[in-house]
Design brief:
By secondary structure, the chain is of the alpha+beta class. It contains 4 helices and 4 strands, in the order αβαββαβα. Helices cover about 35% and strands about 25% of the residues. A 4-stranded antiparallel sheet has the order 2-3-1-4. The longest helix is centred in the C-terminal third of the chain and has 16 residues.
Length: about 140
């Protein structure tokens, strides 16, 4: 969250969690379940050979390159993120989105009942002006 009033935002988030049957853990209590990565999302591959394109990104430090719904997602270790950004700039490719994310090390399967509660919680968090982003390990 990004806020000018920590107490208000803390109370808002606690209320949203409580409403969904959850509680707020101590700072860093679930950090061990996530790893920070660099992420760049670009529109469909630019003209040229796909293999050469991917090899150039791998040489720059990309760990994973995947395509879904006309977007290419490039993940990398945090220390290689700038190299990927520089390589995309060199290729004259403007990322649609880029930055650091927290990715779950392992996903946790959840029931349909829990899924509906999480979807409601995520919707509420998304509507809160102070909440910038959130991460989950739910599958």
């Amino acid at each position: 969250a990004i806020t000018d009033n920590k107490n208000r935002t803390l109370q808002d988030v606690k209320h949203l969690l409580s409403k969904s049957g959850g509680t707020l853990g101590n700072s860093g209590s679930v950090l061990w379940m996530f790893q920070q990565k660099g992420l760049a999302i670009i529109n469909a591959q630019p003209a040229g050979n796909r293999d050469e394109f991917e090899m150039a990104l791998i040489d720059a430090g990309a760990d994973d390159i995947s395509e879904e719904d006309g977007l290419i997602e490039i993940k990398t270790k945090v220390e290689n993120f700038k190299k990927i950004a520089d390589k995309l700039k060199e290729m004259k490719i403007e990322p649609k989105e880029s930055g650091l994310i927290w990715e779950a090390k392992e996903g946790v399967p959840i029931s349909d009942d829990v899924r509906s509660k999480l979807e409601a919680l995520f919707s509420d968090l998304g509507e809160n002006d102070d909440v910038e982003d959130y991460y989950t390990n739910a599958q």
